[in-house]
Amino acid sequence: MPSPANSSSPETRKPTDADRFVGQKVRQARRELGLTQEALATLLGITFQQVQKYESGQTRLSAGRLRSVAIAVRKPIDYFYEPFVIATPASGLAEKEARIRELRRDGKRLIDRIEDDRSLRAAIHILSALEKSP
């Protein structure tokens, strides 16, 4: 049996950034529809105080409750989440290589557009100096 120190009651849990973000999105969607907290609460079958707690992030929305909120405010579930990218070493390396390829294409294109010898020699001199730098 878990001890009281290990259990986490809603009263002792502090809102996380994610809880606050989801709550802000609930508030934003509710306001976009012109709904009051009371009206949303009625649609969800809960009290307006519970809506206040969701919107402040004080109470975390369960997956089922978030689905109900999304339906009530006519938003897709992903509307309530921050976009994020899962960075892996392989994907980070692939992205860096793609950026380098794009920059090389841009550089070659710009060099090909230089028509006078003096400017082309200056560009090559600059690139040579960059190649030697750490």
Automatic annotation (TrEMBL):
Residue ranges with Polar residues bias: 1-10
HTH cro/C1-type domain mapped to chain residues: 26-80
Swiss-Prot/TrEMBL keywords: DNA-binding
SMART domains listed in its UniProt record: HTH_XRE
Gene3D superfamilies reported for this sequence: lambda repressor-like DNA-binding domains
Signal peptide: none
Organism of derivation: Hyphomonas jannaschiana VP2
Biased composition (Basic and acidic residues): 11-21
Protein's name according to its UniProt entry: DNA-binding protein
Single Gene Ontology MF annotation: DNA binding
Region of interest: Disordered: 1-21
Matches recorded under Pfam families: HTH_3
Residues in coiled coil: none
